[in-house]
Amino acid sequence: MKTAMQQHIEWLKATLDICKENAPTLVNCINLCISDSESRLGTEKEQIENACMKWYDGSNDNAGEQYYNETFNKSIKNKG
């Protein structure tokens, strides 16, 4: 299984090839990259929560979500 970021990197490489062939503007390329990144955030959150659940060996049903919210949502809220 690949992480969301590994999938995103593969997508970026494929998109670069498409950009070279079709020569869209840089702004369009960046918008595509942002859109793809945002579409993978849910997958990344799920992967982080699942990893945390494995750490707790399933003994705490909310451990993954709690860890994600305390670690990542806090930093996102502070930036926004």
Written description of the protein model:
The chain starts with a helix and ends with a helix. The chain contains 4 helices and no strands. It folds into 2 domains: 1-39; 41-80, no CATH class. The radius of gyration is 16 Å and the shape is elongated. The protein has helices spanning 4-22, 26-39, 41-55, 63-79. The chain is mainly α.
Which structural traits does this protein have?
single chain; 80 residues; mainly alpha; 4 helices; 81% helix; elongated
Task: Explain the layout of strands and helices.
Layout: H1 4-22, H2 26-39, H3 41-55, H4 63-79
Shape verdict: elongated
Q: What is the share of helical residues?
A: over 70%
Mean pLDDT across all amino acids: 77
Computed structural class: mainly alpha
> Total strand count, please?
0
Enumerate the spans where pLDDT stays under 50 for 5 or more consecutive residues. Answer: none
Brief rundown of the structure:
The protein is mostly helical and 80 residues long.
